[in-house]
Amino acid sequence: MTMVQMQPRSTSATPVHRTVVDAMEAAGPQLCDDMTVEVALSVMASARTGHLLVCDHDGVCTGLLTQAQLTAVRDSSAYTDRVQLRDILGDRGPFAPLVTTMAEAEHAMRYRRLDAPPVVDEHGSALGVLALAR
C-alpha cells in the first residue's frame, strides 16, 4: 500500500474561478448592423482582422461575423451591394456574459463549435471576444 501525505489546506484559501474577462481579447472593430457587406470587408481588411462585432443603433451587440462568412455572402448569386449586416446575422448570439466562467465558456464553445463568441456586459454591449487556443 502506498501512503499519501496530505497537506493541510489553509482556511483562507478560496478557489480561483477565472471568468471570460480574464481571457478575452479586445473587441476590435465594431460596425452598426445597417452597414453593407462591402463596408464590413473593407473595415476588416484595414484592421487586419478576421472578424468584427456587429451592434445595433443602441450599442447592443447583435453578433460576430467572420471574413469567411462575409466573403461567402458577397460571392453568392443572391448578393447585391445593398445587403446589410443585419440581413445576414441570423439569430442573435451566442454571447458570453461577464460572469461566465472559463470552464463554462470552453464547454459551450467546444459543444457548439464556436471560434470566438463576443463577451458582453449586463446591457449587451460588447467588451471583447473570447478565443480558445486551438
From TrEMBL:
Residues 33-70 form the CBS domain. CDD domains: CBS_pair_SF. Pfam families: CBS (PF00571). Transmembrane segments: none annotated. InterPro entries: CBS_dom, CBS_dom_sf. It comes from the Bacteria. This is CBS domain-containing protein.
